[in-house]
Amino acid sequence: MRAQVAIIGGGPSGLLLAQLLMAQGIDAVVLECQTKEHVLSRIRAGVLEQGLVEIMRNLGVADRLDTEGMIHNGTVLSYDNDQVRLDFTEHAGKPVIVYGQTEVTRDLYDLREQTSGQTFFECEEVHPQDLKSDAPFVTFRQYGKDFRLECDYVAGCDGFHGVSRQCIPENVRTEYEKIYPFGWLGVLSETPPAHHELIYSNSARGFALCSQRNSNLSRYYIQCDLTDSVDQWSDEAFWDELKRRIPEEVADTMVTGPSVEKSIAPLRSFVCEPMQWGRMFLCGDAAHIVPPTGAKGLNSAAADVHYLSEGLINHYNNNDSRGLEGYSQKALERMWKTERFSWWMTNLLHRFPDQSTFDQKMQRAELEFLAENQLAVAVLAQNYVGLPY
Ligand code: APR
Ligand code: PHB
Predict the structure, then answer these.
(1) Which residues, in sequence order, are CB contacts of 157 under 8 Å at separation 6+?
(2) 384 an active-site residue?
(3) Quick one: DSSP state of residue 176?
(4) Domains in the chain with CATH codes
(5) 216-254 pLDDT, tens per residue?
(6) Is 161 known to be catalytic?
(7) CB-defined site of ligand 2, < 6 Å
(8) Is residue 44 over pLDDT 90?
(9) What is the pLDDT of residues 60-119, one digit of tens each?
(10) Which candidate, 104, 121, 153, 117, places its Cα nearest to that of 32?
């Protein structure tokens, strides 16, 4: 079997890349280790930067996103009894779109099927090989049968726990990591959103976030201990704790209901350098992780995919390989800025176990500065809506 590009991982990164290449006549095969149903059952964040929305539009797959996605021109930061509303459109010239990332993946799978793109699900023992040679290949097993996929290039889009990153020898690879001393307990409920915009809250009891998916589907998070388990948190305990961390007038009027999903996620910052080795390129979570504060996970993956697809298209269609050669450097330059923003927002809004009263005063001073300084708001807004590609 042969393809120009072998894509490992059928999450949003792999699918976006596959479809961008296909639109330019470059054939890519996607190898996914799970079933499609499993991939589409994962609940992820729901804030899209304009860059990703434009990619979806260019692919002709944004009809549902354009009708169901909600334009958010700003957000609210709440701290103690104070609040500041940050206007993205005023300060950064564009809004963000609230639309579930799982829905992005669903739309991309629908497109992949319409365009007859080849995807192998439930692949086992996926091994990229000979990545330093001119003829790399990927071996895998599906339903007991062994396959060998020959290709020109391999795209490692297989997430944080995938095999691709591990193919870069340890003496070449540097990994930068920060683990935060708390997690996020998230609840999805079929209730109207508590507020028309997202509310990020720094409270004495810890961080909370009110987010949403549509007019009758809400997503909420509270900072929790890393040792907490979902079973410890009844719906009632969750709602009680959330209400104590958000502005009183929002808590008083919010509609609660049974959770339809509840999970705990740890918070991590992680970057692997370089993002390419021989004929393999890493995209998305395979190369980097951000804490969810600011919702940059999928958006930063989309930037990688944009750079890599451009590099591959210029290589195949214009005989220009400079984009491919410079991929890692270009993607990392943008990524470190996104890491900085996610780290900064996490530090600004959470309670750390070892935080002193001085540290808390620093957080409060920074939030007050945001409330009164338009330049500070502009810096936040430009990062939140997404740095240019
Ligand atoms: N072989 C094949 N597929 C694999 C392998 C493997 N060895 N290991 C993992 N995968 C698959 C996973 O099952 C998953 O479907 O790769 C896919 C990776 O998808 P994500 O983890 O969603 O990563 P990515 O596509 O980079 O998404 C980037 O989008 O939805 C957000 O939170 C998500 O921040 C992430 C971002
Ligand atoms: C979400 O809607 O799940 C969400 C929104 C914003 C974030 C993180 C998660 O910063």
Answers:
(1) 7, 8, 9, 10, 11, 13, 14, 17, 164, 282, 283, 284, 286, 305
(2) yes
(3) E
(4) 5-47+99-177+268-345 (3.50.50.60)
(5) 999 999 999 999 999 999 999 999 999 999 999 999 999
(6) no
(7) 45-47, 198, 209, 211, 219, 292-295
(8) no
(9) 999 999 999 999 999 999 998 899 999 999 999 999 999 999 999 999 999 999 999 999
(10) 121
